[in-house]
């Protein structure tokens, strides 16, 4: 039996509905316990080839640069709940733009990045910042309680063990520390309308696509207090009329949590 990695429902291969048959062995299934979408069966190791090589790093750097405002808005949200600027860890730090922005604001920053190419780009941008080139779950035992804030943008969907990921993130935070996660929303209007054609169904590297209920519940079970649980729309790179349309769509969809991505802010309970 294979339990759902998000809600723990027993045997997701049975207690689920097929959203898309990937190939003869694999399928995306919607868990009847939490409405998340999960790839079944999961691979044994996280695939990272898509983010390796100079060309991938150059593409990602252009994408990150175009989303500078998006990263700045996420930092604003972290600061609203952190109550000050201390130590910040960016998990899946990509080419290091958020680290650069946070450092300029006065945060003490570190990054974790699995991709060698992206880690190298992050180091070029942040010469004085420590970038841990490793799998997040293979690192951090010695850093429990070190950080005032932990950010994971567009990372959660790549994780093979969501509960272990959230547990590790919670352990790394000091009491009162802030966790911010953004990830594709399995309950979005786009996911519902597009079904098997939803563009977030990328079986080589998207494994767990949570619902709002599943992600919020997972945070709470791991000892975190959920402060914000909403949705957002657009890529964060829109300008002018496209930006206005993205903001309008976000305002329309967020009240029912139908936006394209889930945005969660949670804090570790004071000990």
How does this model look, in words?
The radius of gyration is 18 Å and the shape is globular. It has helices spanning 54-66, 68-82, 97-105, 116-125, 162-172, 189-194, 212-221, 240-253; strands at residues 16-21, 27-31, 37-40, 87-91, 108-112, 130-132, 147-153, 173-184, 208-209, 224-232, 261-268. It is an alpha/beta fold. The model has no long low-confidence stretch (mean pLDDT 93). The chain contains 8 helices and 11 strands. It starts with 15 loop residues before the first strand and ends with a strand. The strands form 2 sheets. It has a 7-stranded mixed β-sheet, sandwiched between helices. The chain has one domain (48-185, 210-268): Vaccinia Virus protein VP39 (Rossmann fold). Helix 2 (68-82) packs across helix 3 (97-105). Helix 4 (116-125) links the parallel strand 5 (108-112) and strand 6 (130-132).
């Amino acid at each position: 039996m294979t339990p759902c990695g998000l809600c723990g429902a027993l045997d997701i291969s049975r207690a689920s509905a097929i959203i898309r048959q990937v190939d003869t062995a694999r399928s995306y299934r919607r868990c009847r316990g939490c409405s998340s979408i999960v790839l079944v069966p999961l691979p044994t190791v996280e695939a990272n080839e898509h983010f390796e090589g100079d060309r991938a790093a150059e593409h990602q750097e252009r994408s990150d640069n175009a989303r500078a405002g998006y990263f700045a808005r996420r930092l604003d949200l972290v600061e609203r709940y952190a109550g000050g600027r201390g130590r910040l860890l960016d998990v899946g730090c990509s080419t290091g733009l958020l680290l650069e922005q946070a450092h300029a604001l006065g945060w003490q920053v570190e990054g974790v990045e699995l991709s060698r190419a992206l880690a190298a780009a992050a180091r070029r941008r942040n010469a004085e910042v420590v970038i841990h080139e490793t799998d997040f779950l293979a690192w951090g035992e010695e850093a429990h309680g070190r950080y005032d804030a932990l950010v994971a943008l567009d990372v959660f969907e790549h994780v093979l063990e969501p509960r272990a990921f959230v547990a590790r993130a919670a352990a790394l935070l000091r009491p009162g520390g802030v966790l911010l996660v953004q990830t594709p929303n399995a309950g979005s209007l786009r996911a519902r309308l597009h079904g098997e054609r939803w563009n977030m169904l990328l079986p080589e590297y998207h494994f767990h696509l949570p619902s709002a209920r599943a992600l919020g519940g997972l945070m709470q079970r791991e000892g975190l207090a959920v402060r914000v649980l909403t949705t957002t729309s657009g890529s964060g790179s829109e300008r002018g009329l496209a930006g206005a349309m993205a903001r309008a769509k976000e305002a329309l969809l967020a009240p029912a949590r139908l936006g394209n991505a889930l945005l969660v802010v949670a804090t570790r309970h004071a000990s």
